Structures
1.
Amino acid sequence: MPSLPTPHAAVVGLQWGDEGKGKIVDLLTARYDCIVRYNGGANAGHTVQVGTERYALHLIPSGILSHGKTNVVGNGVVVDPEKILEEIEGLRKRGVEVGSNLRISDRAHVVMPYHKDQDAALEDLLAKRAGTKGNGGSIGTTRRGIGPAYADKIRRSTAIRMGDLLDRDLLERKLDTICSMRMAELQALGATIGTNPGEVAPLVPRELAARFSAAGERLRPHITDTVYLLHDAMREGRSVLFEGANACLLDIDHGTFPFVTSSNCSTLGIPSGSGVPGRAIGKVYGIMKAYSTRVGGGPFVTELLDATGDRIRTRGREYGTTTGRARRCGWLDLVAVRYSTMVCGADAIACTLLDVLSGFDELKVCVGYRRADGTVTDRFVPDAERMSEFTPVYETLAGWSRELTDCHDRADLPDEAQQYLAFIEQFTGTPIELVSVGPERTQTLESARKVPVAAR
Ligand code: IMP
């Protein structure tokens, strides 16, 4: 096999999502020809601000906002066809070109309405049973049908792929088998099938086939074999940027299981989710917020349930792009970030939302976890049950009062902010190459620095 060139890169979230990846991908996009999503679905939400315009993207790679890029939705993504059509129309209405610059894998799996019903029914059932016989309650999913769609992918015989939407007869045959099975499953989860409010509408194969083959026809110009497309592009010397959705600590294998999403959203999902071997990736940018947030349930050792947490939430506008939910907020957990840089192979960090931390007298960063027996570990434990006993071991750093939104160079930052960044670099053994101090493209400070201590 000929050796692949490696001008290709990846961007991945190092925490529980919402690290501001959209802005960083948008900035980096200028340097790459193809932008590729390889995991997740419409559970992800990227907000990109271009001038005064704010775009919320869920399934389409952020490269769509830059002219002349090829945007690829890879085979590892689960696509809600009606949602992606809505997104395409929304962008076109605002003058954004969406045509041959958007390619969707014919092997990406489809999120159907019954996946969303199943997601909601299971979450409701788990919430109802919370606390009974050790049941930990619901996961707090986005209810976008992500888990059930991936479950069908693994189950194989009940899965529908984007390519199937282009063959109406095949689609109807598949739905014939799936629908009766699915209604029984929904009822077993406590859902009532019916047409009254709050009930799940009966699944009619013919109707679903008509509705989704119509969506497929509208998407036909975009649906293709994206694996060959990417390899052809790389062979022709074009560069690729892989855009991770969700984040490393939500990775199905390496996150805080079971409070995770259903895909490999660390960089480890790139090869399977795009068909491009891992060794093709020359550089990995890990994105982290200057503090921690998460939405949904699950362990969060540095969570602040007090006025400090509220202050971070208000200053950081920490409300979900996808669901509008208020995010849980806390101090920066460096044990978690160091683990994610290791798993993702991050070569550089982009630190976002540093401006949110202005005005605190002091800032805490978590450098270890104390177990119930008093012993301390500085290793992450990707298991919700085992993490639930941890309390944070903090290092306290000096805060700064000045607003940072007008800083244009890292040297303009107050000394305390520079020390905060230096501490992160030392602890993670990874240089911070980008610092974001506001939503605008211009509010980004770049520096290529060497880090003396390889702590990893
Ligand atoms: P699901 O992906 O909808 O199944 O949700 C599983 C968990 O991942 C929930 O805690 C969600 O809140 C979380 N999650 C999924 N996608 C994102 C994201 O893009 N940002 C933050 N949290 C997410």
Note: The chain is about 30% helix and 20% strand.
2.
Amino acid sequence: MCGIVGIITKKQVPICSSLVQKLKLLEYRGYDSSGLAFLNKKNIKVCKSKGEIKNLEQKISAKDMGNIGIAHTRWATHGKPSVLNAHPFLSDDKNWAIVHNGIVENYLELKSSLANVNFCSQTDSEVIAKLLQTNAPHILALIDVCNKIKGSFAIVAINKLDNNTLFVAKRKSPIYVMQSSDEVIVASDTICFENTGKDYYTLLDDEFCEVSLDKIIFYDKTGKVIKKSKTLLKKSQNKFSKDNLPHFMLKEILEEKVAIKNIIDYCQNNGLKKINKSLVRKIKQIIFIGCGSAYHAGLIGAKLIERYAKIPSTCHIASEFRYAETDIKPGTVFVFISQSGETADTLANLELAKGFITIGVTNNMHSTLSRAVSICLDIMAGKEIAVASTKAYLAQVLMLYVLSRHLQNLKFNTKVDYLSHVLDLLNVFEDIDFKKLDDIAKFVANKSEVIFIGRDLDYYLALEASLKLKEVSYIPSFAVPSGELKHGYLAQVDNRTCVVGITTQKNLHSKTLSNVSEAHSRGGNIVVCSPFDIEQKYLKIDVPNIDNDLICLLVAQRLQYLAYRVSVIKGFNPDKPRNLAKSVTVE
Ligand code: F6R
């Protein structure tokens, strides 16, 4: 969702440029508008822009010197993307400026409590600034406002009477603080701290702080001072460059081999050690929870765990499960899958899982999820900058595969050498005919709709392939289990439709092919993604025949690349698809 940063520096610097540099690191969290505010000759100066951060960059002046400022990159929830709706917002007396991430659920009620106050935006966030009616630069003013808010927030504020303090608040939206010898940074992602310092503070829900160069004071929601300790910043291998490739999405697909190697290392170095025999004896069932691609990875995970470890497993969409009133039996283990570890819908289910063993599968070991679960598995895919998930999804699936085999070994006292399968996979991972995929992408790009079909694991791959394609190419698309096609969905098929059949399992191959042929007979344009032979009249995406379930990863990689190419052919930027944010921190 939105990204937030605040900076105080020891010396006067071109503050707008410093803020914009940090904001660029957060752009993956939202990019429909951005803005900043800083103290300039005792007044708060604001600059905002619609669209990507480069538009804001063009508006700022390098001559504007300062030592304190806040900035925000927005992903619209309340009010369309526009300059007026971009943050920061000013208090009525213009003493305060705030940036906010989250949702003020009772903003209409709060707005109506403010008689004679003019609002200039359609956002829920502006009410926070307008509620700051005392000009005294003190955290108590912010605490007082936050105690009136229903919903979620990470807020950073400045006050024009104090050029040495950032005021910070947090509930259900992440915010972190790092202090080095000559600057302090407050940010919604620790990505902003790289190359700056070695440790940082994490605010928990309903915690507040006053941050200045020489001291950081934390408060609870009653205004009482509290003590907090620091967390070491994990050294990251992240490079925020495209390595001369045209897009991050392509770079990240090409990095999948490294992600696979990282998981092999992780397992060889005992990364799964906390999942031991005594834990396995307690497990009666596993419930997987995730959203979007993470949910699709969980579907595969649940199937594999039933297949290998014979533990009853189900996977649920996070935003549905929390309201499903499911009876959770003793012996249930929850597995939360989230590359960002900050997805609000997923985190909301932690409440339901209280008292049960919880396992997190994440790409962010600094996240709320990693702190909340009993055991956290690090998928180590490296930072994903492209908004649509590729290497993180693939690493999630692989982690769940190794988890299923690890549980199998523990439960049945076997010694299945599953890592040798993963190593075999690496040998063929780059046997991919990009040229042929480019041609198929051209074929797909001018179709009016794309339907992905498959059975069993192939259906789960179809779901993910369809999500990826529509996310970045905007071609209407859905996925359906092959056998269901004839139960109504064939109505969608005509000569403008493309049907992509995924068939990787020998025992189901002929079944899926008959469903493909039902679509073909109705004029559908057919592409088949398979390691097996098919009729020549269909276009084919070849997949090496590795004869085990890891073939999923080969299919995922090819269909991600297909989505990427279709997006590029249609003239879109696959790294920043419309209406999608990397880390969805609102419900
Ligand atoms: C799809 C995509 C989203 C995320 C979903 C969950 O490409 O990126 O569907 O998978 O928003 O995000 P995380 O994994 O961060 O919980």
Note: The pocket of fructose -6-phosphate is lined by residues 291-294, 338-340, 343, 346, 388-389, 467, 471, 583-584 (CB under 6 Å).
